[in-house]
Design goal:
Order of helices and strands: EHHEEEEEEH
CATH topology: Alpha-D-Glucose-1,6-Bisphosphate, Chain A, domain 4
Largest sheet: 7 strands, antiparallel
CATH class: Alpha Beta
Distance between the termini: 37 Å
Number of strands: 7
CATH architecture: 2-Layer Sandwich
Strand order of the largest sheet: 1-7-6-5-4-3-2
Shape: globular
Radius of gyration: 15 Å
CATH superfamily: START domain
Structural class: alpha+beta
Length: 144
Amino acid sequence: MNTIEIQYDIARRPNDVFAFLTDFSQLRKWRTLEDFRVEPDGPIHVGSRLLSKVSGISQPMQFTNEVVELDAARRVYRDRCLDGTFLIQSGWQVESDNGSSRLKRVTEFETRGFMKLLTPVLRRAIRQGQLQDLSKLKQILEKN
């Protein structure tokens, strides 16, 4: 698996950041997604399935992930890939940093077939997209 690690500081209490991150009804406010839904409907929990669609180079890419860890006390989240255009899964932890938050996000992905040739380009695109999304998240959380 290819790994992308990002640490991002947000001037908001860690519990507030974690609560917002795990409220998937808010996801489209800060993530660049064409479509997103949770199965079953409602708040996420371990076992929830996350179905997403994002813009690709020539066509939309679709992914199905499952929540495998959700611990509000430790402010930890992790999902695993079940199916998709390529395998991608993520996790994050929100830590306290002098009254603010440090978000540690880890994304792992693995390409298949002809997409293996695109791995370096895909790595840069995923990282850049995540940094843009985290910038939106920061603006939303620091404004409130």
